[in-house]
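Justification of computing resources. Each target in the renewal requires a structure prediction run like the one illustrated here; the chain below, 192 residues long, is used simply to show the kind of job we budget for.
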Amino acid sequence: MTAITVPVTNQENKVTTGATVWLTGLPSAGKTTIAYELAGLLREEGHLVEVLDGDEIREFLTADLGFSRADRHTNVQRIGFLADMLARNGVKALVPVIAPYADSREAVRKRHDASGAAYIEVHVATPVEVCSVRDVKGLYAKQAAGEISGLTGVDDPYEAPENPDLRIESQDQTVRESAALVHKLLTERGLA
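Resulting structure tokens:
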């Protein structure tokens, strides 16, 4: 049974259209930072917005999962289900999640296609060399010291999207410029 997407009004009685914006990329690529900047822009315009931060989801909703390929797939599917539900109910779901496997991301896209919810995939294509210097959570340093293994893009695979709706090279622009590019795409598609 296909779900029906309905327009929702916000507090100002403005009709808002939901959508999922999935930001995929390596650890420390800038996904979450861009998502929160975009959330601010959208909220200023009166949109209903929720950021589904991959780290927070791991802590609160998928703490039972590890980092095997199967567990990573399950994690992405759970987040995709939640994002689809929010999008169908008029919320802009901004999803900064590594989601390293193409088939997992494709399954999320298909879920949205089936429900009629808008879905945009953004590849934050920051090179691993830049990410390892940023090293926001110290993961690259821990991996280099042998304290952890299975770091996406280093000793665990990352399958970059071949045809994302938008590719951002965050190392070449400010966070605000990156968020503005996503906002522009949402506007062009009638979603902002």
